[in-house]
Specification:
single chain, mainly alpha, globular, NCS2, Xan_ur_permease
Length: 502
């Protein structure tokens, strides 16, 4: 097998965590494309699902094929930037960028606000992408101070907000599983059976001993559900002939709109996702045998989060939802033993090519709601559990319990009883009517003004310590199943100074 001149000879692995190709090695085409395809398969569902959900919930059906194409296209661009590192932008690691589930609830809330004013589909999309474009600069600015703002955005704040994200989205997943919004036969047995088939398949594959099956559980479940729906006559390909052959990326195709009321909750989430990205990049650095302390590490974290913000701005410009790093691809690195950032160029190329063909989005749009709901119900539940994991790592002593209890109570309260804000001015009603917004503000303010428990040992806030907080920001999205318990044990062992070879 021939390799480029920069290629180092693959090392014989001596353990599960050994790498065949290091970060700056250049694998030959065959191993590089094979590893890239595994990354694409592991992340494909995560990239397209938020777009499918937003398009379905807001009634944007005619635009979904193009929006899915753009989601894949900008994921490719973002992955290239992260791997290549262009100037100060990009971590220089093999980390895949994709559409973030973290923004889903606030995007839907913003879309319903605009739709409630009688806006057309194009006006809804123009406003959503305009808001996301502007809000991305919040993360761009935050990236330069991520090690200074831990006093404000602490694990108890992050965990509370992520938990609220998942809990507020579960209704969306359950409604889809039962047939979808407006279905005349909502809850019919054939809907529940189809959604249950997908859900059960994902559960069974996630308990398999093969890591390949675990990584592919969601995409296999969706494929099986889609196939069953097709064979039972619930998928109609009659309109596929009308789908254009090529999707041409067009900046701000739907125009540029803005709404301050819808902007606030989205901007809040842009303060949270950088911490998740920092955790993902830390895990990636460990798996790739890179330092997790010192100036090189901090440069990678800042540059990676900066790339997240810049890629989100580019995504909005090309008519897609905000971007973030995908944690499940860290599991693929462990599986393949390939940490070379040059594989990121192959991943980027595959995603860009997929994004140029709208037939991909058109086929996915035909996926019955119960099929999608069976998968997203697990995904959204996993988001909520990830928040609980962060809170448990933060420590649920009296002060933190008070912060979490009040914030969750307010967030879930306005979601369950929206009329509680009926006598407030429309501006405040729309802002605090989002469970994420009111929960986030509550958690941040309480965390700032409630005095610390004097019995707890104070932490040194002078320097960002990735090791102390890795497990509080790692694995915080619905694609977390890709890194299993054994993987986390490996990370824990790598973080333990006593376990490291001298």
């Amino acid at each position: 097998m021939t390799t480029d001149r920069n290629t180092q000879a693959p090392a014989a692995p001596s353990g599960n965590s050994d790498l065949i190709y290091q970060l700056d090695d250049t694998p030959a085409f065959a191993p590089a494309i094979f590893a890239a395809l595994q990354h694409v398969l592991a992340s494909f569902v995560g990239i397209i699902t938020p777009t499918l959900i937003v398009g379905s919930a807001l009634g944007l059906g005619a635009h979904v094929p193009y929006l899915v194409s753009m989601a894949l296209f900008v994921s490719g661009l973002g992955t290239f930037v992260q791997a290549k590192r262009i100037g100060p932008i990009g971590s220089g690691l093999l980390c895949l960028q994709g559409t973030s589930f973290g923004f889903l609830s606030v995007i839907l809330s913003a879309g319903f606000i605009v739709k409630g004013r009688g806006a057309s589909e194009e006006e809804i999309l123009a406003t959503l992408f305009g808001i996301c474009f502007c809000a991305a600069f919040v993360e761009i600015a935050f990236s330069q101070f991520i090690n200074k703002l831990r006093k404000v955005i602490t694990p108890v704040v992050t965990g509370t907000i992520i938990c609220l994200m998942g809990l507020s989205l579960i209704k969306v997943g359950m409604t889809d599983l039962a047939g979808g919004y407006g279905a005349p036969d909502l809850g019919a047995l054939h809907h529940l059976a189809l959604g249950g088939l997908v859900l059960g398949t994902i559960v069974l594959l996630n308990r398999a001993s093969s890591q390949v099956l675990r990584l592919s559980a969601v995409i296999i479940g969706l494929t099986l559900g889609f196939a069953v729906a097709w064979f039972t006559g619930r998928v109609d390909f009659a309109n596929m002939a009308e789908v254009p052959l090529i999707s041409v990326p067009q900046p701000f195709k739907y125009g540029f709109g803005f709404d301050w009321i819808a902007f606030v909750p989205i901007a809040v989430i842009f303060l949270i996702t950088p911490l998740e990205t920092a955790g993902d990049l830390t895990a990636n650095s460990i798996i790739s045998k890179q330092p997790v302390k010192g100036p090189l590490y901090m440069r990678r974290i800042k540059s990676g989060v900066l790339a997240d913000g810049c890629n989100s701005a580019v995504a909005a410009m090309f008519n897609s939802l905000p971007m973030t790093t995908f944690s499940q691809n860290n599991g693929v690195i462990q599986l393949t033993g390939v940490a070379s950032r040059h594989v990121g160029f192959y991943i980027a190329s595959i995603l860009v090519l997929l994004g140029l063909f709208p037939v991909v989005g058109a086929v996915l749009q035909l996926m019955p709601k119960p099929v999608l709901g069976g998968a997203t119900l697990i995904m959204f539940g996993t988001v909520a559990v990830a928040g609980i994991k962060i809170l448990s790592e933060a420590g649920l002593h009296r002060r933190n319990v008070l912060i979490v209890a009040i914030s969750l109570g307010l967030g879930l309260g306005v979601a369950g009883v929206p009329d509680v804000l009926s006598h407030m001015p429309d501006v405040l009603k729309n802002i605090f009517g989002s469970p994420i917004t009111i929960g986030a503000f509550s958690a941040i303010l309480l965390n700032l003004f409630l005095p610390d428990d004097p019995q707890l040992e104070e932490e040194d806030e002078s320097e960002y310590d990735p090791e102390a907080h890795l497990h509080t920001v790692l694995q915080n999205r619905p694609d977390d199943a890709a890194i299993d318990d054994n993987s986390l044990k490996t990370l824990s062992r790598d973080l333990d100074p006593a376990a490291r070879p001298s």
